[in-house]
Design a protein that fits this description.
This protein is of the alpha+beta class. The protein is 24% helix and 29% strand. The chain has helices at 11-20, 57-63, 74-78, 80-90, 106-113, 203-216, 250-253, 260-266, 326-335, 344-353, and strands at residues 2-7, 25-30, 45-48, 97-100, 116-121, 131-135, 150-154, 160-168, 174-176, 180-185, 188-194, 221-230, 233-240, 279-286, 300-304, 314-322. It binds adenosine monophosphate.
Length: 354
């Protein structure tokens, strides 16, 4: 069996491992802080389930291996300054932005970007962490600790948030999943719905954007592009050079999941345009105790990551999938009393989107 080492040992690595079995690949996720360094064979492959990592003996070993796929991509995407510069250089629409330098005044940022400006940490921000709003109506200087470590973005008055997950192999063949509609709350993904016929007309636009980005970096694997929609225009919020939470529904709703796809790509196995099965929705399980009765709900597939419960932490997800929409509505009704009360809004949002 060929071995694929994965930098990162979170739920994404675990789900890559699950997807590897039918391909007869041996996927081994590795914790960056693990001091037990593995023996990596010359023919083994190395990939990552995260775009940033601390410098440790483990990450040095993996990231410097000659078979580390996309070695030159991660730093460009992990740092928002480089990611936004890349999008600009490719002419791919993204929220207008400025670099926040040591001397940058908030007045300059408002003059360039408007009344409300969102500071985002160049690195390390995720799930809405690492964001800070500046409002001209309540003037304040750029906080000291954001200078030189952030970019500033225009506030985008988006109608909705859509994401696209695509795969690319070494020969440049590209495949895409259908656009996914996402609901965020406090910057963290709560729920997704796909496919949605009402956004079919945006699929070509999204594929052209992500295709251009993947080609420009000779990318091999799966990449996710999160977008804001304004009327019929998509603008990129951010990229992830890996499997993505908004693609989890593909475990139930596509013949090749977003976890199997990058393994095929890195191992040189054929990519196939994913045939989508029925209607899917995904609910993230955030900061709550496990409820085993989720497992009884028809049309649902439950993933519980076995992590320590902490507020705001992603602990699992539920994929709801069925050829028809009515059973999805039934599943939402059955799940409602089994989820915390504040999930009501997310469940209503899914029901409305279906
Ligand atoms: P991010 O961490 O960049 O994915 O941002 C998390 C969430 O914050 C997004 O999903 C949006 O809901 C919101 N957000 C991010 N950037 C902007 C922006 N430029 N304008 C308005 N909302 C934003």
């Amino acid at each position: 069996m060929q071995t694929v080492w994965v930098l990162g040992a979170g739920q994404l690595g675990a789900m890559l491992q699950q997807a590897a079995y039918p391909l007869a690949l041996r996927v081994i996720p590795l914790d960056p802080d693990d001091r037990n360094l593995p023996e990596i064979g010359d023919g083994d492959l190395v990939t990552a389930e995260r775009e940033q990592w601390p410098e440790t003996p483990m990450t040095t070993l993996l990231s410097q291996h000659p078979n580390f796929v996309n070695a030159d991509v991660f730093w460009r995407i992990a740092d928002r300054f480089h990611q936004k510069s890349l999008l600009d250089s490719l002419g791919v629409a993204t929220a207008p932005w400025r670099d926040v330098e040591a001397e940058t005044a908030s007045r300059e940022l408002h003059d360039a970007l408007g009344e409300k400006v969102l500071l985002k940490r160049r690195t390390g921000g995720y799930d809405g962490k690492g964001q800070y709003w500046l409002d001209r109506a309540q003037p304040q200087p750029v906080p000291e600790d954001w200078r030189g470590t952030a970019i500033a973005e225009q506030k985008i008055p988006f109608m909705e948030e859509l994401s696209l997950v695509g795969g690319r192999d070494r020969d440049g063949k590209k495949v895409f999943y259908p656009l996914t509609l996402n609901l965020h709350s406090d910057g963290i993904l709560m729920a997704s719905v796909a496919p949605l016929s009402r956004v079919n007309h945006l699929q070509g636009q999204a594929e052209a954007m992500l295709g251009k980005i993947m080609d420009a970096m000779s990318y091999v694997g799966v990449m996710a592009m999160e977008c804001f929609r304004i009327d019929d225009t998509l603008i990129v919020n951010e990229l992830a050079p890996r499997v993505h939470n908004s693609g989890h529904w593909t475990q139930a709703g596509a013949c090749v999941s977003q976890f199997e796809m990058p393994l095929r790509a890195v191992a040189g196995l054929p990519l196939k345009a994913p045939e989508v099965r029925g209607q899917s929705a995904m609910i993230n399980l955030i900061g709550m105790e496990r409820e085993t009765r989720w497992l009884e709900v028809p049309a649902c597939q439950v993933y519980w990551y076995g992590k320590e419960v902490r507020p705001g932490r992603k602990l699992g997800h539920i994929n709801i999938n069925h050829p028809e929409t009515a059973p999805l509505h039934d599943a939402l009704t059955a799940l409602r009393p089994l989820l915390p009360e504040h999930y009501g809004k997310a469940l209503d949002w899914v029901a409305e989107a279906l």
